[in-house]
Predict the structure.
Amino acid sequence: MVGESSCADSWGRALKTGKPSLSIPCFAERRYGGVLDDEMLMALPPAMLEQAIAGMHALARNGLRYPFAQYGIQQDVRAGMKVSYPGR
């Protein structure tokens, strides 16, 4: 849409359509912006935020807390999970 970043594109699209929007960051965002290679961006329109928060509470009741840890394909998630979820 605007060509500046996947973040701007996703927010603009979500606000325009009223639907969630997924974007894959471009090369420059991954190379120079500190975005992980396997990261995607999701933007929600304001009307869906209450539902998203309720979903995060449901995940927390099942043992997965927000913010979700950033683990790429070259990292072992078990080390970080032990710190975030001791005794599990």
The helical segments are 6-17, 27-32, 49-61, 77-84. The two ends are 44 Å apart (CA to CA). The mean pLDDT is 78.
